[in-house]
Amino acid sequence: MKLLVTGGAGFIGSAVVRQAVGEGHAVINLDALTYAACLENVASVANDPLYSFEQVDIRDAAAVDECIARNAPDAIMHLAAESHVDRSIDGPGVFIETNVMGTYNLLQSARALWERKGRDETFRFHHISTDEVFGSLPADPDVQFTEDTPYDPRSPYSASKASSDHLVRAWHETYGLPIVLTNCSNNYGPYHFPEKLIPVIILNALAGKPLPIYGDGSNVRDWLYVEDHADALLCVLKNGQVGRSYNIGGENERSNLQLVRTLCEILDRLSPRSDNASYAELITFVADRPGHDARYAIDPTRIRTELGWRPSVTVEEGLERTVRWYLDNEAWWQALQNREGVGQRLGTKA
Ligand SMILES: NC(=O)c1ccc[n+]([C@@H]2O[C@H](COP(=O)([O-])OP(=O)(O)OC[C@H]3O[C@@H](n4cnc5c(N)ncnc54)[C@H](O)[C@@H]3O)[C@@H](O)[C@H]2O)c1
Q: Are 350 and 91 in contact (CB under 8 A)?
């Protein structure tokens, strides 16, 4: 298959690019190279004849149209987005421009290509979204997000992603564009940009800095290893039913405090502090995020029963791999330390 992957220089997109090239697909990586991008993430496939890169901003409709028409992919996997909730609180405008208008531009160009291909039924527009569109869950472990949970986004980020999901469904219902949609829980793993919780904790710990936890640390997330997510996305692209959405989860619910304590235990083993004190002593509770959703949890029944997919690693295994990766790849994260906003507390302007 010839795949056009948007956002392929980001955290999840690069995992999709690496895996897709590894499976023998031709991959065009379309990315604007914003502050969150790093072409180093795809260095392992950069010289592969199956791989090519196009620097395109999805807010630029003409550039998107030209790129899609010229490459004429069999499928588009759309991951490009502004993705950080804290940044969406401080500056929501670019989230609307990229996540909503950018998705609209892609849908229009994909639709034109699909029409030129004679409305080819094998064509796919795969929209990659988040479980945050469903809002916040109560603590009751029997209540989880299903594909039928009503949308209830509560941050500018999740509202912009929810808007894009609605556009994608509308282009299927109205124009017949063959789409699949996935809503995934929180990802973690190698190449995670150092503004998100897990890399912040690992890198602050190694620097002997406080480990910031928003509020009381009781917020619960369902953690998925990024390479499992990439695997699930390729599975849905190949086997998912047209017009259908699939929730993807790690089946690994943890509170932020539990997660950080686990990271500290791993770091204590793999990179002990000189005085042998635990990294957990550096845990510091800081002001909560405005509108911080209490709990996200995915009911994975559909993807498991219809497509036979389930995650391959537990959160403990995945976190250990992740810590080892950051310990072994200091040059990667050191190079990102000077990017705008990295190392600062964002999202407090509300
Ligand atoms: N990170 C998570 O836990 C998570 C969970 C579920 C869903 N998602 C979704 O997965 C996708 C990828 O998330 P991520 O964590 O890899 O994000 P990321 O921020 O690491 O990467 C986003 C990529 O998109 C590119 N991009 C941003 N604006 C662009 C524009 N205007 N034009 C072209 N490219 C642009 C960036 O340069 C970057 O390479 C997003 O759509 C996000 O909503 C993320």
A: no
Dihedral of alpha carbons 300, 305, 306, 312, sign: positive
- Tell whether pTM > 0.90: yes
Does residue 100 belong to any structural domain of this protein?
yes
Separation of alpha carbons 44 and 55, rounded Å: 19
- Residue 274 corresponds to which amino acid? S
Q: DSSP assignment, residue 295?
A: B
| Residue 311 structure tokens | 């995650």
Is the C-alpha dihedral spanning 185, 183, 154, 151 positive or negative? negative
Does residue 350 carry a pLDDT above 70?
no
Reported as a single tens digit per residue, the pLDDT across 275-303 is 999 999 999 999 888 988 899 999 999 99
Q: Is the separation of the CB atoms in 163 and 88 below 8 Å?
A: no
- Among 51, 104, 157, 246, the active-site one is 157
**HSE value, Cβ hemisphere, 13 Å, CA-based, for 166:** 14
Kindly state the tokens that stand for 34.
């914003």
Ligand 1 pocket, Cβ-based, cut-off 6 angstroms: 7, 9-13, 31-34, 36-37, 57-59, 79-83, 98, 102, 128, 130, 161, 184, 186-187, 193
Q: Which atom of ligand 1 lies closest to the CA of 59?
A: 31
Question: What three-state secondary structure class fits 22?
Answer: helix
Asked if residue 90 belongs to a domain, the reply is yes
Give the structural domain span for 189. Answer: 2-194+223-253+295-314
Per residue, the 3-state secondary structure of 259-283, as one string, reads HHHHHHHHHHHHCCCCCCCCHHHHE
Per-residue pLDDT tens for 142-201? Answer: 899 999 999 999 999 999 999 999 999 999 999 999 999 999 999 999 999 999 999 999
**Cα distance between residue 203 and residue 200, in whole Å:** 5
| Within-domain flag for 301 | yes
Annotated active-site residue 157? The verdict is: yes
DSSP secondary-structure letter at 125?
E
- The CATH number assigned to the domain holding 112 equals 3.40.50.720
Element at 21 (helix H, strand E): helix 11-22
Catalytic residue list contains 222: no
